[in-house]
Amino acid sequence: MTEPGLLGPQIALFEHALRLHQQHPDGALPRAGEPYPDHDRHRSRPSYRRARDRRLYGADVAVILDRHFNEPDAQASELVDAFRDVYVPIHRNDHILAAALRADRQRMRQTGRWLVRHSNDRNAATVGLALLAADSARDDIPLIQTIGLLSNHFGPLAAEALQRRRGGAEALQWLAERVAGWGRVYVVEALCRQGAPNSRAWLLRHACDGDYLNGYFAGKVATTAHLHEAITSTDADDELIDHAGRLLRTMADCEGMGMALEHYPPAPAVLAAHATHLAHQPPTADRYVDAAIIANYLTAKPPNRCGCTAEQRDHVVQHYLAVLDQPDWRSAVRVGLGPTSTFFAWFVDHVAARLRLGTFSDVAESGER
């Protein structure tokens, strides 16, 4: 199999995504599938100007589509080069949507399918995906999912297209399990917008993968999936508890990105429940780190910035520290964290030192890494 960066310039982006997916069927594509087959050509093309008025974004694309659909004998292949020097939005666009709806539905769908499957130019493939996002045919789900694997660019429209279709929740979940970075943001947000009951279990256990960008959707996941109900249950499982820890850790430090703990009404109850469950879980390095970082954020901010009263905040922090100070937990984190890693150095200086965690006191005092 040819390496991604060596794929010939004539290969379609869909074929590029499909080949990489065959190599990585159950996970995200390396580098979200980049570089794309049109990388050199796209980078070297003359820069195009966006309209100064954002309300006009996509209007020139709509003009090209109207002209094409008004010619009965025009072929979809004629559009491949039509958008090369035009600004094509990667998100839902009212101008492009209107052009799609003005066209004959069957021809519009056929054109969208052809462009997604055969275009070797990302602009043309994006327009094709936008056309499919204007429709709701279930037959197009596999096509949309595959191009959506190139998620940094095609993720927004793939998520838009899938959520419009019957069976879209399952299709979105399949894609969410195979994208990372910005692509994960687009797809998980679409799952939250759908609010499908059968997505709740996945959102409660797998939505956050630990990436910094999770901050954009962590609060949406917590509210959509009713985290407060799940985590306060006595039968909460380890996967749910661990993911709750990732959600709380993310929401503690995502101000400016998404919903922070300060604006999450159930924060006191969810924090207390997580700390309580943690005490009954087997110790691991990941659980230790998540709990310590949450406790650190809680102590570093005024209580109201954590969505708690001072009494609630102090009670939760004491509960976390009581767990983290147990010998088996201290041993687990010592074994699990690599002492030469950059993260270890950051953790010792910015978390362990503030919380005065005995596990790391000798390292912090001696300056050893």
Topology readout:
Blueprint: H1 13-23, H2 39-44, H3 59-69, H4 94-102, H5 105-118, H6 122-133, H7 141-148, H8 151-163, H9 168-176, H10 181-194, H11 200-206, H12 218-224, H13 227-231, H14 238-251, H15 267-278, H16 285-300, H17 310-324, H18 327-336, H19 342-355, H20 361-366
Helix pairs in contact: 1-7, 3-4, 5-6, 6-8, 7-8, 7-9, 8-10, 9-10, 12-14, 14-15, 14-16, 15-17, 16-17, 16-18, 16-19
What does this structure look like?
By secondary structure, the chain is an all-alpha fold. Helix content is 58%, strand content 0%. It contains 20 helices and no strands. The two termini are 42 Å apart. Mean pLDDT is 91; it is low at 1-8 and 363-369. Residues 42-51 have a biased composition (Basic residues). Residues 25-51 are annotated as: Disordered.
Features:
disordered C terminus, disordered N terminus, 2 domains, 0% strand, 369 residues, mainly alpha, 20 helices
**Count of runs of 4 or more consecutive helical residues:** 20
- Helix proportion range: 55-70%
Rounded to an integer in angstroms, the radius of gyration calculated over CA atoms is: 24 Å
State the end-to-end CA separation. Answer: 42 Å
* Total number of distinct structural domains: 2
The SS-based structural class is: mainly alpha
Low-confidence stretches: 1-8, 363-369
Shape, principal axes of CA atoms: elongated
Strand content: under 5%
One letter per element, helices H and strands E, the order comes to: HHHHHHHHHHHHHHHHHHHH
Number of DSSP E strands: 0
Instruction: Give the integer mean of the pLDDT values.
Output: 91
Largest sheet: none
Biased composition (Basic residues): 42-51
Region (Disordered): 25-51
